[in-house]
Write a structure and sequence with these properties.
Number of helices: 1
Oligomer: single chain
Shape: flat
Number of strands: 4
Order of helices and strands: EEEEH
Helix content: 10-25%
Strand order of the largest sheet: 1-4
Amino acid sequence: MAIIYRVQDLIELTEDQQSQVVTLRPRDGKLTYYFLAAWQMEPDGIRTEDEFTDYLGMLTRELDSPVEISP
């Protein structure tokens, strides 16, 4: 599982033996983040930590690139 968020919105990362917590700074009263989960048993699923890391890298690059619309 992963949470994707804007680095500039990060206030704090904390954890204990059972949980990891990300505290984010809202912009105009709203939070922007993405939650991701992968299951190795799904068809063509992500099976290794490296595959998951590569997938996260691809997603963050896509989210960081503005959408271009041309007539």
